[in-house]
Amino acid sequence: MKVANTMQISAATEADTECLSVLLGEIEHYYGGEPVPGDPEQIRSALFSDRPVATVLLARDGDTVLGLASYTFLWPAAGAESSLYLKELYVRSNARRGGVARALMAELRSVATASGCSRIEWTADTDNPSALAFYKALGVEPKGGKVFYRSAL
Known about the structure:
Layout: E1 7-11, H1 17-30, H2 40-48, E2 55-61, E3 64-74, E4 83-91, H3 100-114, E5 119-122, H4 129-137
Parallel strand pairs: 4-5
Antiparallel strand pairs: 1-2, 2-3, 3-4
């Protein structure tokens, strides 16, 4: 699918909860899990409560959602500065290679700049060569020196 020049990027709203649920199922499937939609109540709580934990940008062509970028802010970044942390960048399979990811990254850069951030940070799976190639094409090289940890609760 070639992405039309009419692509718009905007922050998701509570009205997008069902769409986000479907997208989360697609993301889970992309990473090898079962394509089970996300829980709408958890999505509402995480994104649209009094204390949201993330913001989601949606790329759309008309009424069709092409992809998303989920982010939050981290502090401290360098000194007392903050950074924008990209948690998930996802483009639906029929919209890949159409400029959606590049447009989402450009919008993230605008958000980070407007928010006074000193940088954008993210991780990528080492077994995702298309993502690694995309980030390299953006001119961003991987940073060494950190080890990723995860502790289940």
